[in-house]
Amino acid sequence: MSHSIALNFEDGVTRFVETRPGETVADASYRLGINIPLDCRDGACGTCRCRVESGDYDGGSYIEDALTEEEAAQGFALACQMRPRSDLVVAIPASSAACKTRAQAFEATLEEVTRLSDSSIAFSVSAPPGLSFLPGQYVNLRVPGTEQHRSYSFSSAPGAARLSFLVRDIPNGLMSGWLRAAQPGAAMQFTGPSGSFYLRPLQRPVLMLAGGTGLAPFLSMLGLLQAGGGPAHPVHLVYGVTNDADLVGLEELERLAAAMPGFTFSTCVAAEGSAHPRKGYVTAHVAPAQLNGGEVDVYLCGPPPMVDAVRAWLSREGVTPANFFHEKFSPSGAGQAEAA
Ligand SMILES: Cc1cc2nc3c(=O)[nH]c(=O)nc-3n(C[C@H](O)[C@H](O)[C@H](O)COP(=O)(O)OP(=O)(O)OC[C@H]3O[C@@H](n4cnc5c(N)ncnc54)[C@H](O)[C@@H]3O)c2cc1C
Ligand code: FES
């Protein structure tokens, strides 16, 4: 049986390769011209050691010098030996350039642009053949008619016929301005997928914290969870915005909560004059039980000041989550996903 392997490089680029039945991850990668670190090809040197983030595999045979028992127990494997038993996500300890590859380029057609509020626009494009991504990842989209690029996270789940995005309408913003006048049928170009901010297999409760259009990657993650029959552990989302008009996507969140008993969410608005029942920042609306004494995976996405504020708040609360993944929607367009 063939399996899809997501190779995540250190620079945030992800390439997907399909293994043939019985093929190792290294052989499949080289067949497609992706030169991941490799030397002996025999399980002896450890050059091809990588970390498997999700999926099942047969680790093959190797000597202790190449991979210790402890490393294998921690999820490390040898790409030259491992044969997948399911789709895998594998972190490669090298940059995409060092492996003679880079993010793939795609062309798509703008299908729909919808103004959701004064401050938010949703748009979708046709899904080009050959594009795979992990829920939470983003692409670098060329602003049509320019040589400028902007990063946008998918709000649609992997496998959907259309790729959807949720964008804050920035006055004087280049991409924002283009979207305001955009018509379906326009040609779009992007490279990707990129980013290490993606949903890992659920091993404990999950707390999602979204700021503004930082909701987008969570919609993608939740869509995938729903397609998989719902989360195996409780998932709670706190979605905060600055002004009442920024609160969008509520119907979709309500639909997801109704479809998945394990998923709950709440919203809040920071502006003083807001009519919303819950005011303030997301951190004011996380119940202690949702931090579960640190036995929780926290995912956070929003503008850079929010990410910094949540980090400081966790530290003040004395809570160290089992995993803390975050992505800053920095205006520069440079991807800044990190795990700590
Ligand atoms: C990894 C990653 C993923 C991202 N995903 C998304 C996403 O899914 N949805 C989304 O809406 N954005 C996302 N962003 C931000 C996005 O890439 C753009 O920066 C943003 O949409 C502004 O682009 P623009 O061309 O409209 O404005 P620009 O032409 O880039 O900016 C015009 C002016 O507005 C300022 N500005 C830019 N952004 C803001 C802001 N948020 N608040 C105040 N001033 C600002 C700029 O500094 C500049 O002065 C992401 C960023 C990163 C790094
Ligand atoms: S290349 Fe030497 S152990 Fe895999």
Tell me the strand order in the biggest sheet: 11-10-13-8-9-12
Contiguous helical run count: 7
Distance N to C terminus: 35 Å
Radius of gyration equals: 21 Å
CATH topology of the largest domain: Rossmann fold
How many domains? The number is 3
What percentage of amino acids are in beta strands?
A: 25-35%
What sort of overall outline do the alpha carbons produce when their principal axes are compared?
globular
| CATH class category of the largest domain | Alpha Beta
Helix fraction by DSSP (H/I, runs of at least 4): 10-25%
Tell me, rounded to a whole number, the average pLDDT.
94
Bound molecules: flavin-adenine dinucleotide, FE2/S2 (inorganic) cluster
Uncertain runs are 333-340
- Give helix and strand order, one letter per element, not per position: EEHEEHEEEEEEEEHEEHEHEHEHEE
Give the full name of the CATH homologous superfamily of the largest domain. Answer: Nucleotide-binding domain of ferredoxin-NADP reductase (FNR) module
